[in-house]
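ligand=NDP
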Amino acid sequence: MDTPNTTTDAGIPAPSDDHSLTVGSDGPILLQDHYLIQKMAQFNRERVPERVVHAKGAGAHGTFEVFPDAETPAWTKADFLQPGKKTEMFARFSTVAGELGSADTVRDPRGFSLKFYTDEGNYDLVGNNTPIFFVKDPNKFQDFIHSQKRRSDTGRRDNNMQWDFWTLRRESTHQVAFLMSDRGTPRTLRNMNGYGSHTFTWINAEGEAFYVKYHFKTDQGIDNFTAEEADQHTMVDADFHRADLWNAIEGGNFPSWTLEMQIMPVDEVDDYRFNPFDLTKVWPHSDYPPVKIGRMTLNRNPSDYFAEVEQAAFEPSNMVPGIEASPDKMLLGRLFSYPDTHRHRIGANYMQLPINRPKAEVNSYNKDGQMRYENPGDPVYAPNSVGGPHADEERFGEDFTPTVQGHFTREPARQHSPEDNDTAQVTSFWEQVLTEDERTNMVSNIVGHAGADEVTDEMKERVISYWTDVADDLGKRVADGLRADADETAGDNR
Ligand code: NDP
């Protein structure tokens, strides 16, 4: 076959693919074998640090198309959300706690990160397959993740540590219920929903603001593994979800999700029955019925996993005109945390990599730094008198500027009513949303997890009280399961 000659990374024809340059066939290797040295040095530097969370993932390219009859102009002026608009995008799905080589099918929330290459710059929505989260203040995020990852001493994950954190932070109950339900083990990445989870602000062309929540509903239908099925797949193929997504797209079976929005006029916030910026709560559909906006379709596999999936950098701080943050404390914390991790993990100029590079023109005054390959050129400062870019504050300054008053304080966000507690929504999830089969599975999953050898008796009592606070029958079923488990173990040891 007529193949091109191998070259060094400088494009110089390489002398050999097979043999190092030596003095005689058995002799020492010569330092001037530049290609060999380049191969060894480059190999040693192949890895960038893996993500501390969401390390294991799969990604694909696609498009997002707004329905021609969408009513979005009433709520946002964001160009890519106007009726009929089609925008290129990239999606990355992931587990949370496991490392790069860990199994796809373990019980875990799934990341659901989207990058829209809009004409007004990149818009990133960095969500999960759950509409809520374990904690509501960014001060608790690192502690939460530490409790879910490996212990310092054994280097192993520890269910006792996980329940210790959860039971001491009752705000986690809603998300732990989701995690222990069948949705904790999605069958494929195509069969799960994605949620922006936080509350965001949309602003229309008239300057009116709305608080909103994003729901990407799978068009493939929700489908989950039972715990046993998930365990089986974990044993057989660690990359099961990655393979499924790839094969579906390769076979022309393009997965899609319909975007539905919940929309709350800003003047309804103060009188709402709970704090709508609390990331551990959903907005009930009956209060704010989801409205269909558009569809995202994934239709192209990455051609280079490292370049496109591993180096994809999503950050909630990438918001385009017509979309702004909200007082959700977790969101505000993440606005800092994501770009910070990318600078550490990939380097200061991660935005210039093809997967992260906006399709829109970049005219910033940032320059130089490691791996920068293109600068804006002169002038390098603003203001200047030589025709450099200038920011039009009138057009692009913050549109929504609510008045906020208060003294510096460290306290939970304001509760709106007694309903604004950690368990009310979990009770309705348990009593009204789950089928009896799903309840049985959830109890069995809790018992399986809290029944692990390392979980102490004292911790098991705390687990029972945690679920009894949601519903007496749930607490009783968990208690019965844990006791039956303990009796069985005692029997085994006799
Ligand atoms: P609804 O009856 O209107 O909605 C319940 C929603 O729960 C469904 O629309 C579906 O949302 C989701 N759901 C259904 N089955 C399951 C399941 N097995 N596991 C997880 N979620 C499921 O009630 P409300 O809106 O008043 O919510 C009641 C409770 O439902 C909430 O407290 C929350 O626990 C849960 N829930 C609510 C969501 C919301 O945004 N309002 C979203 C998800 C769960 P979807 O189609 O988005 O999956």
